Amino acid sequence: MNSAADMPASAAVQPFTHLDSTGQARMVDVTEKIPTVRSATAAGFVRCGEKVIAALRDGSAPKGDVLAVARIAGIQGAKKTADLLPLAHVIGVHGAVVDLVVGDTGVSVTATVRTADRTGVEMEALTAVSVAALAVVDMVKGLDKSVTIENVRLLAKTGGKSGDWHRAAE
Questions:
Q1: Is 17 exposed, middle or buried (0-12, 13-18, 19+ CB in 10 A)?
Q2: Distance of CA 156 to the CA centre of its chain
Q3: 63 φ, ψ to 5°?
Q4: Is 138 a catalytic residue?
Q5: Helix axis angle, 50-58 relative to 122-140, nearest 10°?
Q6: What are 16-25's pLDDT values in tens digits?
Q7: Residue 10 in this model has a pLDDT that exceeds 50
Q8: Which residues contact 6 (CB under 8 A, 6 or more apart)?
Q9: pTM value?
Q10: Which of 29, 83, 138, 144 is catalytic?
Q11: CB under 8 Å to 60, separation ≥6 — which residues?
């Protein structure tokens, strides 16, 4: 699809919300929107080798409590999303839960963020997962530099004009 003629009809009538009439990036004005309760859940995975898994399970990671640091980093990441993403709105993060579970091949990271605001918290949930995963990498890189962050994705969102959405079962 290279021209407007090649685009589906739905794309032709739906302008890009973050571009003005001259094609310049802009922040969408949500001033007139009424705050509503919204939530979003995201997940990701930090793939680790056996040495890292063993250290996470027995608490012997040289930098300390990896999961506690990652949990706090994820919560902080959710609250700092608007500082990191230029067109994200500054919203009240009214709740953030970051869970980390050590498995046989790595650490599963899940974050749920809630608000009562004018726009959703999908980016906050994704940022929470990303920053928590980065914190795990930072905390274990001395043990294994090959750890990788994988499959960061939105799992669900609730509230707002577009309603609820849930990713199909994986």
A1: exposed
A2: 11
A3: -90, 0
A4: yes
A5: 100
A6: 677 777 777 7
A7: no
A8: none
A9: 0.85
A10: 138
A11: 54
